[in-house]
Amino acid sequence: MRRIGDEQAALRQLAMLVIRGVKPSLVFAAVAEEVGALFNADYSGIVRFEPDGEATFLAGRGWLARDGSGPAVKLDPNLALALVRETGRAARLDADDPTSPSLPEDLRAGGVRSAVSAPIVVEGRRWGAIGVASRGGPLPPGAEQRMTDLAELIAIVIANAQAHTELTEARARVVSTADETRRRIERDLHDGAQQRLVSLALQLRGAQATVPPELDDLAAELDRVAVGLTSALDELRELARGIHPAILAQAGLAPALRTLARRSPIPVDLQVRTEGRLPERVEVTAYYVVSEALTNAAKHARASTVTVTVETADDVLRISVRDDGVGGAGYARGTGLVGLGDRVEALSGQIFLTSPRGAGTTLRAELPLTEPNGVTVNRAWPES
After folding, report:
1. Domain 2-169 maps to which CATH number in 2.40.40.10, 3.30.450.40, 2.60.120.260, 3.40.50.2300?
2. What's the maximum distance between 2 C-alpha atoms anywhere in the chain?
3. Is the CATH number 3.40.1190.20 carried by domain 252-384?
4. CA 26 from centroid of its chain's CA atoms
5. What CA–CA distance (Å, rounded) separates 308 from 290?
6. Tens digits of residue pLDDT in 223-270
7. Taking the CA of residue 279 as centre, how many other CA atoms within 13 Å lie in the half-sphere pointing to its CB?
8. Cα–Cα distance, 61 to 57 (Å, whole number)
9. I need a labelling partner for 21 at 20 to 30 A (CA). Which of 70, 159, 265, 367 fits?
10. Model pTM?
11. Nearest to 31 by CA among 103, 137, 122
């Protein structure tokens, strides 16, 4: 009963990692750690079988373990892992059992006395294998079946982690495509319609300058048209800026945020502590986090001031937008926070909203500055 309880506790730990969106490399490391502890093994490891017959080491625990994932290699045919790949069944090697296949020489030299491996089958495919080894003596009887049962449950964890990763990558592609479309529309508006309107406005002013003094009414009408044309041009520029801010691509995050602060109807205390340019996807997401928060503060919060802090630390960009308004903000009230959360999650980021009624609203986001290879999601968004 204690053994079953330990196994269930280990599987719960692994399931929680998937639910929290921990990247696959950490899930694999946790699998090796938990399995090694369950068998009290000197070594545990997990490998993925590749289509060409090789195997990729993903994670391990113990004296044979490497640091991180390694390149795909050919498996020694005498390894239990190789037997698992060949037969699709659990395999056991015991140095003290004359009926057992021989342990590879390098394992014998390392003092290994017993090794057990079992296949991990994901969606009907022999995905990989999990294995343990002991230097203190033979692994307990029934270890093969116990390992097989664990591998079946671990396969569910891996399938969920794999699906989570694929979903994240798809979401990131959607966000990237949408941002590229925004950039293209903004560029087309700037290089096309805006330039045409500027040219027409100059021509109109030139024509206005040639109107004889006795045609005052015509001059006044041309002036009204010119003013209207200038107003339309300003509106188009504002529209293009809302689609995608050109200053963000041209000058970077800090100048773009200063422009947002100047345009805000609420006084903004802006503090940006970053150096140089950040990855484009991070700058764009950070800009929209601040933009959405300032928009919500102006429309809904009835705030008198907003404090915006942006800084980098430990390969993470941290963003905080805090107002002194009425609070009570929630992501289910059409404030754009749902889409914002999706955008942050697509970068393996985290987003938090704290908005008690009568005590203001604080929106925080953390964006990794490295390439996303998994998702870390924490939508701490209260309803009120």
Report:
1. 3.30.450.40
2. 118
3. no
4. 14
5. 8
6. 888 888 887 777 777 666 666 677 787 888 999 899 889 888 999 999
7. 15
8. 12
9. 70
10. 0.53
11. 122
